[in-house]
Amino acid sequence: MTLSIPVTWSEAHRRHAPKTGVWVGVAIDADELPERAERIRAALAEAGAAVVDAEPHDDEALLAVHEEGLIDFLRTAWAQWEDERYRDDPGQPDVVGYIFPTPGLLAGVEPRVPEALSAQTGSWAFDTMTVLGEGTWEAARAAVDTSLTAADLVLAGAPAAYACCRPPGHHVTRSAYGGSCYLNNAAITAQYLRDRGAARVALLDVDAHHGNGAQAIFWERDDVLTASVHIDPAEGWFPHYLGFADESGPTNLNVGLTEGSGDDAWLAGVDRLVAAALEHGSDALVVALGVDAGADDPNSPLAVTEAGFREAGRRLGALGLPTVVVQEGGYVLETVGPLVRATLEGLDETR
User: Fold this and answer.
1) Which distant-in-sequence residues (6+ apart) come within 8 Å of 279 by Cβ?
2) Active site includes 13?
3) What is the mean pLDDT of residues 241-270?
């Protein structure tokens, strides 16, 4: 079977190549690597998918979802970090925050813009593990173009298109980045579809971790449904503070899973997302596709098989909606390509 879903792509993803992050104060090896996208593209090319180069899009699409201050910071922070010689003292080559203006710190006082860049980082980042390096902005910006090019293909009549983009984006809120994410590709795509005629959009997130960014961005709106199936944060997993079932509302649904959940429990969660899209009356679909729910991925305790991902693709495809699939997590290099391929093959079977 030849995969008929087109794949959008940008070589600029390679510009983001972090070596380390900082987790509980310890430098750890990065696992959101350029090779992730290369492995996915190779698996999809082997399946016969057509590859389409990403086209540039205006910043208007970013600003429809994110605060201008976040965009400006991401665009300029690394060059300023270099100019201020943080690489030499204290010896940190990447932009990393160290102080964060939490409600407990501020005690109701409106925060001022810090003078030090190292402190400014805390105004826009919500963790220390998401470092901003020399090519991060270019790669993150290209990931948006990759996602929006997939949306353009769908708007032009393709039943579905897949954005092979990195870095991922689903943890980014309107004004803060983190979770190895810098710009919320899926949320930007959902808004882009709305702005071009889709009356109601479903953004369904099947990454192993809660899609907190989309929930925050669209929380007060009923035209974009946000629904996520993920490891329950009560089990001790990222993003820890968000993703609980009682955060659900008319246009937001969180389905939390227990550790060790496999195909049956995960697919039951996918079914709940699909049912929510049907009830919402969505006329376009964005799928935030992470494959870190895979059984061999150390970044989650879920145990979904390749067959489970293929079946999820079928169930999402059964909605019959114009569909943009946007890549999120999945960190085992040996399996990330086959799991994405299986999902898209399942989706393709319904077209």
Assistant:
1) none
2) no
3) 96
